[in-house]
Model the fold of this input.
Amino acid sequence: MTGSRVSRLPTGLTRRGAGLLAGLCLVVLAPHLAVAQIGAPIQIGPPPSDPQTQAPAQAPGTAPPGFPAQPPAGGQSVVPTFQPAAPLQPQTRTTFDGAITIDRLQRLTVDATGTLTPTTGGLQSDYWNGTPGDVALRLVSLMPAAPESRALRDLGRRALLSAGPAPDDLMPEGALLEARAERLLTMGAIDDLAALGDRTPGDRLSTDLSRSLTEAAFARGDDERACALYNQLTNTSTDGFWIKVAMVCDARAGRDAKVDFGARLLTELGDEDELILALAQAATSGQAGAQFRMGGAAPVHLALARVASLKIEPDISAISSLPVLVGLARGSASPPFAARLDAAEKAERAGALAPEEVTDLYRDVSVYAGSVDAAIAAAGADPGPLSRAILWRGAEAQSVPVARAQAVAKAMEVAEDDAAWRQTARLFAPFLISLDPGPDLDWFAEDAVRGLAAAGAIRAADPWIERMRRLSVSGSDDAATSWQRLWAAVRLAGGDAVTPYEEAAVARWWAHLRAIDPQQASLRGSAALALMAALGDPIGDDAWRGLVSAPPIDIQAVPGTAFAFAIRAAADSRRLGETVLLCVAAPGETALGDIAVPALADIVRALVAVGLEPEARRFATEAALAHGL
Done:
């Protein structure tokens, strides 16, 4: 077809010139073609490099990188491994006259996946700036599953779910996403983890990430999703976890012989999981009369009990897995109501369940309408989850404000410990908010303000605080005493928006503290002023002199020295993600009341330094209440 028009080159245009023209067209069109790309950049060719440093051609008979050089002996199968190339590092450039500096673009990988942005509650997108990849991985792994501070837990959750570029030197790609998913699972944030999984491209699901997503799916009762994740994987035949997953999926499909085979395979591999073996035996034998206590259960155990319709009588005190507790609270595997209620309160106390999910269960408790006295008497006789539920229902049924306040006050009074008291404040907060202060409720004002502060709703206490101040000025000794007791906690919780910082107010509060509790005055006064100073209040030198007293050494728990200096350095350098995760990890799961105040004040100060003052104030309030203010 030498005469064809399409095979001819225009006059004067050589083949080399045609190649240059084609290249120019590609350059012109490239910006428009790039618009159609979705997701992370796809490298369609080798990265540019110096021709002199090009790797030599692969010798005949040698294996490509990532594959064994020779086949293994005995005909064993080989799973190829993939070693990702080191990420390209574009350099910062400056125009020839120095007038314009062009920063390098951060490389987006699967580790940038997140469900939160700065406009939806996430941290700012560059929150990993300045933090090396190995440090980021270590800090994520150090996050506690159930910190006592709700403020710190919420901050940690936001960090784990925030979208944004990972550290430039992070290797291997995907490691940070895997670590974040594992921590979310451990924290019982199974709905958040499922949403994160939905944002992750299917072809980027590693085995470790799939494991976390599978456990979350089992805990949520989404067995179809869990089995779909299992079916996407290969080479899991000798992994005990995936064998157990296969047993659940086989039981769900009615393949009892395969369930039995899985149990025997676990035994041969030396996996001494007595609970899964007992559940498998009951599922395949048709003798499901035993009631399983589920001690030490993981989501896969809960799933097998559920799909096999086995009877369970969970011992909640013997279950530490937060995903399992959340699943039980939601009725997975049909536990008795008392166990659901116990699991719900335990999960909520750890921050894994919203207060509304607990109170929804409270609504299933039957109470007789009428006087709240019966509910109060029952709660006093046997404090615990059921008593709280009865008092909550009693408060809900009351239309008389005084009777409702009595039920709330009793619930706070019978709380088993400080953690239970703070939980009670969260669960009963809607009733506190619904009450209006007045002469009939002046006796309840202090409880109302303290409860609202503990629940993180200090602004809802404004009417109570205003009435207390007004009565105090008018000469009410009771109101004046209550206000002096509350002043420090209110100042910490609300700042200038609720009550201003005044040296005269500090002096009055300090005099009152010494009068009512001389033994603890110095410790509590120091705690309050240290936290105020960390929030930026101008505590004068004279105030500290007046607080000095015996004993000079306060023996309390403190985070490690490395934590103290690392928090300070990260905050001073405004490394946001690093500061947040250090602050969350430092207290661990230790009770705030057992941690030395200077260590708590360091956390407050660091959060303020990186622009998280509301979160710092909330944490300071928790710390103050835990230290008896």
In short: The radius of gyration is 31 Å. Residues 1-90 have pLDDT under 50 and may be disordered.
